[in-house]
């Protein structure tokens, strides 16, 4: 704490927070430490740094700002392992000890600051700063993949052409999905039909090896035919709907193809025939000029 002078805390305040914390660490004569592995020392350094910010914000002279840091460090050490009642008593005694270092206004501001921060969250301070913590630190090497090399501009597509191709692809995908749904429905209806027929036949317990009379046989056949007709009816309705949907998708594709955008013709330097076209254009201009003369 001997290096913590008025000029020292002034420099701490003038730096940005990372540089200010590092400068404060050197003024406190602390050795360098790992912020992640030694979280207790990191939090303690934050607490001392925040006390400087508080004091400067309240208009403390720079000499008194250095005393606030000393006051904070002593308070944290003396209250380690104490109850909150003992901590309040220690805070009151320390404020009386520092009466000669601060005027009444600054002393009251200092009292309010520690009541609203340290005392209000006393259990948290004790838990973090008063006992050893188990640190489980996992380090993962993350591989960052760079973006792929973009293709040459000559291989690019006009925006409208690209959008047109995307729309065609979406329609084709929707058509494939419709046909897939049809196949899935056929399989589901076939399983349902088998299940219903099996339930119908199972309603004749103990009669499998006995001869059925005419009425029972007719009833059994009628129910089986009814099941098949209902399944076939549902399948036909869905097939009709799917067929109309597919036809509508085909119509949309046809309309898109009829209204397909024409890609712009961009001349490329060095393309075969371009130099000859330019020479021919210059020759024609020369002939027109001579004709006018």
TrEMBL record:
Residues 271-293 are annotated as: Disordered. Residues 282-293 have a biased composition (Basic residues). Pfam families: CLAMP. This is Uncharacterized protein C8orf74 homolog. It comes from Bison bison bison (North American plains bison).
């Amino acid at each position: 704490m001997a290096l913590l002078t008025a000029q020292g805390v002034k420099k701490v305040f003038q730096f940005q927070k990372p540089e200010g914390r590092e400068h404060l660490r050197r003024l406190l004569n602390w050795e360098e430490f790992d912020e992640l592995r030694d979280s207790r020392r990191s939090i303690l350094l934050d607490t001392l740094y925040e006390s400087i910010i508080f004091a400067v914000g309240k208009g403390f002279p720079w000499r008194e700002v250095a005393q606030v840091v000393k006051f904070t460090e002593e308070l944290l050490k003396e209250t380690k392992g104490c109850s909150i009642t003992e901590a309040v008593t220690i805070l009151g005694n320390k404020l009386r000890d520092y009466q000669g270092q601060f005027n009444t206004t600054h002393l009251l501001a200092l009292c309010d600051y520690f009541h609203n921060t340290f005392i209000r969250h006393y259990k948290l301070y004790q838990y973090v700063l008063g006992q050893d913590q188990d640190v489980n630190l996992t380090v993962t090497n993350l591989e960052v993949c760079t973006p792929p090399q973009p293709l040459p501009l000559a291989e690019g597509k006009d925006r409208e052409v690209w959008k047109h191709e995307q729309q065609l692809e979406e329609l084709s995908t929707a058509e494939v999905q419709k046909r897939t749904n049809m196949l899935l429905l056929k399989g589901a209806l076939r399983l349902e039909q088998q299940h219903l027929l099996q339930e119908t036949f199972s309603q004749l317990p103990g009669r499998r090896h006995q001869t059925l009379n005419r009425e029972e046989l007719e009833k059994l056949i009628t129910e089986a035919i009814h099941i098949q007709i209902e399944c076939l009816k549902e399948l036909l309705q869905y097939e009709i709907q799917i067929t109309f949907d597919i036809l509508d998708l085909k119509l949309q594709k046809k309309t898109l193809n009829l209204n397909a955008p024409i890609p712009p013709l961009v001349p490329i330097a060095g393309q075969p025939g371009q130099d000859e076209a330019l020479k021919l254009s210059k020759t024609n201009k020369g002939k027109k000029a001579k004709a006018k003369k």
